[in-house]
Amino acid sequence: MKLMIPDHIRAISPYVPGKPLEELEREYGIRNSIKLASNENPLGPSPRALEAIGKGLSSLHRYPDGAGHDLIQKIARVNDVAPENVVIGNGSDDIIAMLVQAFVRPGNRVIVPLPSFLMYDIAATAAGAVVDRVPLDGLGLDLTAMAERVTADTRLIFVCNPNNPTGTVVTRAAFENFMARLPDHVVVVVDEAYIEFAKNPDCLKTGSPADLTRPLVTLRTFSKAYGLAGLRVGYGIMPAELAGLLHRVRLPFNVNALAQAAAAAALDDRDFLERSVRLVHDGLESLYTAMDCMEQVYFKSESNFFLIDVNQPADEVFEKMLRQGVIVRSMRAYGYPNYIRINVGLEEENRRFVRALETVLQS
Ligand SMILES: Cc1ncc(COP(=O)(O)O)c(C=O)c1O
Prior knowledge:
There is one protein chain. The chain is of the alpha/beta class. It has helices at about 5-10, 20-30, 45-55, 70-80, 90-105, 120-125, 145-150, 170-180, 240-250, 255-270, 270-295, 315-325, 345-360, and strands spanning about 35, 85-90, 110-115, 130-135, 155-160, 185-190, 215-220, 235, 295-300, 305-310, 325, 330, 340-345. It folds into 2 domains: about 20-45 and about 270-360, Aspartate Aminotransferase, domain 1; about 45-270, 3-Layer(aba) Sandwich (Aspartate Aminotransferase, domain 2). It is built from 13 helices and 13 strands. The strands form 3 sheets. Strands 2-8-7-6-5-3-4 form a 7-stranded mixed beta sheet, with helices on both faces. A 4-stranded antiparallel beta sheet has the order 9-10-13-12, covered by helices on one side. Strands 1-11 form a two-stranded parallel sheet. The mean pLDDT is about 95. Pyridoxal-5'-phosphate binds next to helix 5.
């Protein structure tokens, strides 16, 4: 084929997701394996969401509500903003793509932390942007260095809070200093995919009515604390002017009918949310204790995952863990060739992970 593919598209390394359980079981002939690789909710979906899905099944011959009316109303109410300030997406990934499509043209610049969630870089590169990757300061975002990288061509800055994969948070004070240094033409995107798990009282949380007076977009997802990763629903909170621009590039039925119904029901399920967050906090404590007992180097996190320094190639540890029926994530693609990332699982899954890691590291 003699296709004229743009160089910037050829240059992209495709996103590699956590290995699916089915794939592991197929390839290795293993039963009862566990996955702690994609920061999912080990409790499963909220029961209320499942009930809403059941009710929605008989209407699947209809298109979804393209305006997402009911879900948007509910998100707006829960966050104390107006429906005009909310855009829903097929996962928050979809909103990241829309933001880049709406605000960035080839040659413009996008600032991202490094390492952080890989989709910021991929979406910006796909749009032909120049990506300014700003290394972390230790494991935390270096907001000072990020502000210093702004030029007249900068269109977007991504702030991941808590940061994936390091689990660190940005404080409110540091963020306000950062915002004060930015010129008016830059849109700041604060990705709060894991915000429900953050415990630090000084942690930044955006999306308040006051934030709607500045070029700031808050991203949230139903994939983590709400347990709906497979349905793909996320949302953004932003000034109505910015939301209007995203609606210009949004696909007409970007969030399917079952996802809309389930997400709206999950927002009402406070009990499930509390159980999910408690499970993560308790699980982190017991995993930290286990790592201490093994004298294993690890990094405490404000999220539902944390990094472990395995002091040897992470890709090899990943492979050996697969043979134990445990899927973890190698952090090589994130620039940490000796680190793995795991998310908190159910108690029994956490114990199984610890046993498997002991076996692998002693082998
Ligand atoms: C920081 C961050 N943002 C966004 C996402 C994407 O979430 P969604 O499932 O809503 O597309 C992820 C998924 O892992 C993530 O880690």
